[in-house]
Amino acid sequence: MNGYFQLITMPTSTGIKVYGPTEDGHAVKYDDVKEYLEERVISYRPAILNEAVTEATGEIVILNDNSCYPERESYRLTISRDRMEASAFFYAPSENAEYMSKREFLEDLQYRNIIYGIDIDNINDYFDFREYCKEIVVARGTKTREGCNARIDYQFKADLHAKPAMREDGSVDYFNLNIINHVKKGEQLAILTPEDPGDPGKNIYGEVLNPRPVKPLKLAVGKNTSLSPDGLVLISETDGHVTLKQGKVSVSNVIQFENVDVATGNVNYDGSVEVRGTVAAGFSIKAGANILVKGVVEGASLTAGNDIILERGINGMGKGEIKAGGNIVTKFIENAKVSAKGSITSESILHSSVSSGTEINVSGKKGFIAGGRVTATDRITAKDLGSDMGATTIIEVGADPGLKIRIRELQKAISDSSKRLENIKPTVESITKRLRSGQQLSPEQTRQAQQLITQNKVLTSQIEKNTNELNELQQKLADSKDAYVVVEGTAYPGITIHIGDQQTTVKTESTYCRFVLRDGVVKTSPI
Question: E strand or H helix at 86, and its extent?
């Protein structure tokens, strides 16, 4: 048991008895006794009080020569900062003074609005055995159990990237790219773990503490897929290959051709297209998934929803065009227009317009970019930029300068819509209140009400749409600051480097360097 103290009141003086602890108990602390006396305005001499607390003989020690009223049994209540716990520190009554009853203590807690999580067992133990000068937890709140967001686990490689291997002789292997996720009918494609909302907590004052909001998710059914009865598993309905695009999983088949020419005509297919030979000039291939061409593409047009692989490359002849919703891997690009939302990998780019939503890598034995305009959002890596023949070459990385203009337009549109919404809000709320109370509106009032309610919905939808686009563009603008160009060989004079909205023209030959945007200026640094 802990040590404790007891106030002694006498006709002409006031004293104190301090008792030492027993067994594993703790001794009385000087500050606890000091606080007790000062709250009751009982004078004392610090040295004498300190000696009494230190020795704890249980004998009377005179504090002052004044008599005071007897002190009932009392307590000090401590509330935790998070309002989740209350503890009582009980003081013994002075000699012959009154004890506090359990009922009185419980009523006092209720008076202090402590109504939840009362630890009646601890309170009963105290009033049965009365152990003083000890912190006793008398109320505990219930902690909030935080939930978690819903999660989708894809049962295939959702982030497949076409990355050809480099051979020992420096050439690039475009044959074994492993870019297709093959699936069989009945296979599981994705598994949804639903959101866990968590459980609310409650503090000792009975206030509910809600967990943080969680984000739900749903499995989106794409082509040739279906959901399990409970909606938690996405299943393939056919053999083929699986792709993930904008959160939707689809399974597509693959169609094959020897060549695409006069014998086949133009090709338009929802799945993937494989061509074992060449694609002749003037013909086109449109595929909902991937395009693989093992021969040369000659002045043709190729459009794919996902990746495009050209094992021999493209000679656009000034009219060939390639567009991919994913990545592009090709042996070479010459006199062609090429764009991809993903990355572009090639051994050389000559007199072409090339654009990537992420990065462009030009590697291998040649590894040069000469002539034309080559643009990427994140970075461009090449062995050589330009040529000693002075071909006009423009290299661009980072956000499109028009991005900032669009951001300002969206900010103004959101501001204008918000003001208009704020102006009609009181009227809409007034009409809604009148309708709920059963009041009738005249035909003219009804027409105006319908117009305002429709306008309210339209403005709210516009604000949400513009805000989503604004958030995406602001993230792109922030990412563009880290864009850069890497030259693993030589950057020849005359090439123009754009990073974001800044540019520079290379005046002297530079080797093994990196072009970056620093302090608002395009600068070079060694790699």
Answer: strand 85-91
Q: Which of 476, 512, 475, 516 is nearest to 499 (CA)?
A: 516
Distance separating the N- and C-terminal Cα atoms of the chain: 72
- Alpha carbon 68 to chain centroid distance? 65
**Contact by Cβ (8 Å): 323, 302:** yes
Q: What is the dihedral angle through the alpha carbons of 487, 492, 498, 499, rounded to the nearest 10 degrees?
A: 30
| The CA-based dihedral angle spanning residues 231, 254, 312, 340, taken in that order and rounded to the nearest 10 degrees | -40
Amino acid making up residue 193? T
- What does the pLDDT read at residue 178? 56
Nearest CA to 37 among 94, 104, 87, 83?
A: 94
Which residue in 370, 343, 353 sits closest to 487, CA to CA? 370
Q: How far apart are CA 140 and CA 280, in angstroms?
A: 79
Give the single-character DSSP code of 142.
B
The H helix count followed by the E strand count for the chain is: 6, 40
- The pTM of the full predicted model, rounded to 2 decimals, is 0.51
Quick: pLDDT tens for 466-494.
999 998 888 777 666 689 999 999 999 99
CB 488 within 8 A of CB 381: yes
Beta bridge partners of 305: none
SS3 of residue 317 by DSSP = strand
Give buried/exposed letters for 263-286 (b at 16+ CB in 10 A, else e).
Answer: eeeebebebbbbbeebbbbebebb
SS3 54: helix
